[in-house]
Amino acid sequence: MGSPARPRLRRKEARPGELLSAALDTFREKGFAATRMDDIAARAGVSKGTIYLYYPSKEAVFEAMVRANLLPNIERMEAAIADEERSSADRLRLLVTAFGEIAGDARLVAVPKLVLAEAGNFPEMARFYRHEVIGRALSLVSGVLEAGMAHGEFRRLDAALTARLFLAPVIVAALWQTTFVPVEDAPVPPADLLRLHLDLFLRSIAADASGGAP
Amino acid sequence: MGSPARPRLRRKEARPGELLSAALDTFREKGFAATRMDDIAARAGVSKGTIYLYYPSKEAVFEAMVRANLLPNIERMEAAIADEERSSADRLRLLVTAFGEIAGDARLVAVPKLVLAEAGNFPEMARFYRHEVIGRALSLVSGVLEAGMAHGEFRRLDAALTARLFLAPVIVAALWQTTFVPVEDAPVPPADLLRLHLDLFLRSIAADASGGAP
Amino acid sequence: MGSPARPRLRRKEARPGELLSAALDTFREKGFAATRMDDIAARAGVSKGTIYLYYPSKEAVFEAMVRANLLPNIERMEAAIADEERSSADRLRLLVTAFGEIAGDARLVAVPKLVLAEAGNFPEMARFYRHEVIGRALSLVSGVLEAGMAHGEFRRLDAALTARLFLAPVIVAALWQTTFVPVEDAPVPPADLLRLHLDLFLRSIAADASGGAP
Amino acid sequence: MGSPARPRLRRKEARPGELLSAALDTFREKGFAATRMDDIAARAGVSKGTIYLYYPSKEAVFEAMVRANLLPNIERMEAAIADEERSSADRLRLLVTAFGEIAGDARLVAVPKLVLAEAGNFPEMARFYRHEVIGRALSLVSGVLEAGMAHGEFRRLDAALTARLFLAPVIVAALWQTTFVPVEDAPVPPADLLRLHLDLFLRSIAADASGGAP
DNA sequence: AATGAATGAGTGTTCATTCAT
DNA sequence: CATGAATGAACACTCATTCAT
């Protein structure tokens, strides 16, 4: 109750974060082009000019916003398999769960979707995303797969390709959430889908089921 | 005098198609917002005003373009399993091949990607696409799956979920092509990916592993 | 009464001229920076967007306007001494009269004044003006001077410097008109000034005073 | 405690002068409109807000800057003919030299040029300049001319008009320096021009050359 | 006195849409 | 049918000015 509303001059350090958060929400509602700087400013509770104190252009805001949301994505992924004790199959299970959580976080998933949509107009950003997010996720998965193959848990397969197949349903589920759910009659629970995926996937890569090759 | 070719008015019936073709190419290069009516007109070789003789707005052009590209997608899919003689596994193989061809056709794949990108701004179109393209594809696949289950070829699984898992790598491959390939160092051949997918998928749904091998 | 006002679509060919005329008047009232595109458009009786059909930017309008007003300046000057019959002194007299007329035309004089004011921001334009207008005027005058020297009418002097001295009062009179007259208590008639200038100037360059007097 | 140097506030009395000096340099580089308060502040080594402690607006800064540069102009001029002993011709010679020096001082000459350029937007300032600088210079010259006429050194002429003719080459030389020199191929040395000017001018106003009036 | 973060009115430019020809 | 000149609403970005600290 001491000082409820201060009109001017707030913490300069917190500003960029607030702006990018507002930017994310606005971009994800309207897309890049349909978002006006005024929208972002209003949502962040500042004036339009203030944005330009921190970012030189709308594109710069977009890029900074994407970049700021890369790290959480990556960290959550990598944290997901930090546990070294488990079997490779268990680690894949953990990964599916972790990715499933990410895929269920609408704000987080909006970022790759925006990257997808704007890749043509922001090639540099697409490259960055490709390498720093997707590339790392693929490495993560193929690392687990290769370990599993080495241990004899999994069949010998092309790890790079298989990693892609492992991730595909997660990616589709994520995009699905942000694209068709508001329009869907009978949404499929992503958890069910991913549980089945894990089951089928493990079965398909399992080292020769009954006793191996004769 | 009865000759068909008239110098002034080029086939007026062909106009809408030419416009939509030009629209598709422009939208896929720049996205919806960054495409100017002038761009489309120039590419179609007409004046800007002419577009408005056929479509009342830029949004209408976009929607018509999407709609016009629904049918080819659907038809190619449905043609892919017209052959009733084959086993369910063979029909899935055919489907993967067909989808793989679609996914390799950059112009065709651009359409779902645009729908994805603009779903927030064109909810009606998203709904339409969800039902008329994706819905049909899912039905197609789950039909085959159910037949295979009924015949004992496949295990009993939730056909709706499994159909999604069947399609996921195809979708991801398609999006990948249009998004990251211009930015990719070492592109993965989609055909390799889909071949492996089919292999793993069939293995994972095969009825009772023990007796499954022919 | 047949068709008093046509709202749209007028002669495309006349437009650039109308626009530049409106631009000149607005620039001369407010200067380059304080002139808004809306001002020019309103004065030309078109909408702001129309200007951009003909010129890509405000700077381009400015440059085109300056360029369009070069020719009249130059032509009036050069026409002024087309007559080959006269003595060099008479030709200088004609030049002073001609320059005096130009200097009295407020719209015409506004152009060099704007060039002067914006020379720092439009160096290319300054260079152009220096060469194509001022340079030609100087050549004109020094040509007459050299002819007069060759004929023995004038003393031997540095023609380039002397030409500058001949033009200086004309230039000052011109700038004076556009700068201080709206602020002046007792304006000096430029004609009186230039008449005296001619008298003093001819006297100062006359060949040998002794025989020069009639 | 009585020591003059205080670390925090640098001589607060010197501030306005420093600001105006920075303002002059910035205005003369970019003109009034294109100069930003930030530019001036940066050049003066203070923050933007500080300027507003001394001047209420950008226009006020401009006007103060012009006003602050009046005095040096005037004083140098008036000092130039303080010497009462000399002949009128010598005093004109001194004036030309003095004016020539002023005209060669790019910073000083920038001021009248800015006044010229902004006269339309700052009429009050134009009036002030007209009276306090130009008016005094004209009085100075016409005073000398009248004295010379009274002494029989010079012919009887309209002193007001003749004074203008005396100053015109100086003014043109000054403007030339600030406008076209950065753009010039072969600059004319102002000293040469003014020397010739003085020579011709004195000759043109000299009391009747051979024997004078009968 | 000095700062510099914040403001918001102002303006150049774009572009979907209209319509006289 | 077709054109393309014209429109005007919309928006990104700027910058003089304010004011809490």
From TrEMBL, chains A, B, C, D:
<dbReference type="InterPro" id="IPR009057">
    <property type="entry name" value="Homeodomain-like_sf"/>
</dbReference>
<feature type="DNA-binding region" description="H-T-H motif">
    <location>
        <begin position="36"/>
        <end position="55"/>
    </location>
</feature>
<dbReference type="GO" id="GO:0003700">
    <property type="term" value="F:DNA-binding transcription factor activity"/>
</dbReference>
<dbReference type="InterPro" id="IPR036271">
    <property type="entry name" value="Tet_transcr_reg_TetR-rel_C_sf"/>
</dbReference>
<dbReference type="Pfam" id="PF00440">
    <property type="entry name" value="TetR_N"/>
</dbReference>
<dbReference type="Pfam" id="PF14246">
    <property type="entry name" value="TetR_C_7"/>
</dbReference>
<dbReference type="InterPro" id="IPR001647">
    <property type="entry name" value="HTH_TetR"/>
</dbReference>
<dbReference type="GO" id="GO:0000976">
    <property type="term" value="F:transcription cis-regulatory region binding"/>
</dbReference>
<dbReference type="InterPro" id="IPR050109">
    <property type="entry name" value="HTH-type_TetR-like_transc_reg"/>
</dbReference>
<keyword id="KW-0238">DNA-binding</keyword>
<dbReference type="InterPro" id="IPR039536">
    <property type="entry name" value="TetR_C_Proteobacteria"/>
</dbReference>
<keyword id="KW-0805">Transcription regulation</keyword>
<feature type="domain" description="HTH tetR-type">
    <location>
        <begin position="13"/>
        <end position="73"/>
    </location>
</feature>
<protein>
    <submittedName>
        <fullName>TetR/AcrR family transcriptional regulator</fullName>
    </submittedName>
</protein>
<keyword id="KW-0804">Transcription</keyword>
